[in-house]
Amino acid sequence: MHPSRAVAFCFFLVSVLLLAQVGLAGEPQLTAGAVFQVIGGVLLLLTGLFGFVRYERNPIVSAYGPTTYLLIAGLLLWAVGLLAQLLTA
């Protein structure tokens, strides 16, 4: 898999979990934090979809290297934390 597609997929995964956390974690409340989380989730979702489709013309990263591995590791760690919060809520 192209490294830019891998990073874009991680963005997509985190965005879906962020949006799910707002909708599934307890009773939905319209707070500033929830609004910012939804905005951030939508922006990450759009970024992930854009990066997944246009990875050749506009790559997020161009080769597997320290930046790519750091982005993937950070995003996967974030996804695991969000998933753990969803499962324990």
Describe it for me?
The chain has 89 residues and is mostly helical. The protein has one domain (3-88). 75% of the residues lie in helices and 0% in strands. It has 3 helices and no strands. Helix 1 (3-24) runs antiparallel to helix 2 (32-53) and helix 1 packs parallel to helix 3. The longest helix has 23 residues, at 66-88.
Q: What is this structure's SSE topology?
A:
Layout: H1 3-24, H2 32-53, H3 66-88
Helix pairs in contact: 1-2, 1-3
**pLDDT averaged residue by residue:** 85
Low-pLDDT runs of 5+ residues are: none
Q: What spatial form do the alpha-carbon principal axes imply?
A: elongated
Order of helices and strands: HHH
Summarize the amount of helix as a percent range.
over 70%
| Distance, first to last CA | 34 Å
Per DSSP, the total helix count is 3
Query: How many individual β-strands?
Result: 0
The largest β sheet comes out as: none
Structural class: mainly alpha
**Radius of gyration over C-alpha positions, nearest whole angstrom:** 14 Å
Integer count of domains: 1
Beta content comes to under 5%
Summarize the structure.
This protein has 89 residues and is mainly alpha-helical.
